[in-house]
Amino acid sequence: MTEPAAARPAALQERSRRSQQDILEAGYALLEEGGADALTVAAVADRAGMAVGSIYRRFGDKEGLLLAIQHAFTENLQAEIAERMAVERLRLLRDPAVAIAEAVGAITDAFQAHEALLRVFLLLGTRHEAVRAEGSRVSVEGNRHFAEALRHTPIAHQDPAAALDFAFRMTYAMIAHRITQGEFLESGRPLSWSELRSHLQTAVVSYLLGTPVGR
């Protein structure tokens, strides 16, 4: 039986969407396994079960492929953090300290869950301007969402917006440092991810809700 003409475009779109997802997943796996050097058009095509030419037609070249993979990854990561740090959910928490701890925990948990890929992009961003720019874009957006999620929290600073900005910077910097440099760069004392999460929560809660020096 012949497929109706109206159904063919939808079917083609679905096949295209699946092919795109296969390519992205192949790219994720290669980057996690071997870092940026493992990502080649041929390797992605082989892993995704596609022709090399189809990869070039979609993305132009290796750099286009890399940036498309990064963009898809950062968009998914941002959505995951936003879901964990939903403004509506945090507003239901009556204790400001609990709301702040939840927001910090949401960032930490999401970054830990994607540690391998984040390490690749964070390190690559130190020498690849387009990768750095995409990382900065999504980080700035994460900062904005962090502030929005906690905008109803009583911050003990004359400039709450600046305090929230610093709190996000501190959280992001600590986690990014852990991902790129590991557990023991500056200390021989073990610090598990769960301990790092707990200490970050305590530090940020104390900073945002405590009485600043000079007040």
Task: Walk me through what this model shows.
This protein has helices at about 5-35, 40-50, 50-60, 60-85, 85-90, 95-115, 115-125, 130-150, 160-180, 195-210. It is an all-alpha fold. The longest helix is centred in the first third of the chain and has 28 residues, at about 5-35. About 25% of the residues are buried.
Shape: globular
The share of residues in helices is over 70%
The fraction of residues assigned to DSSP E strands is: under 5%
Unreliably modeled segments: none
Q: Count the E strands.
A: 0
Q: Main sheet, how many strands, which sense, barrel?
A: none
Number of distinct helices? 10
Average pLDDT for all residues: 92
Strand-pairing-aware structural class: mainly alpha
How far apart are the termini?
79 Å
Rg is: 21 Å
H and E order = HHHHHHHHHH
Short description:
The chain is an all-alpha fold and 215 residues long. It has helices at residues 7-34, 41-48, 52-59, 62-84, 87-91, 96-113, 115-124, 129-149, 160-181, 193-209.
Attribute tags:
single chain; 215 residues; mainly alpha; 10 helices; 74% helix
What's the helix and strand layout?
Layout (H helix, E strand, L loop, with lengths): L6 H28 L6 H8 L3 H8 L2 H23 L2 H5 L4 H18 L1 H10 L4 H21 L10 H22 L11 H17 L6
Helix pairs in contact: 1-2, 2-3, 3-4, 4-6, 4-8, 6-9, 6-10, 8-9, 9-10
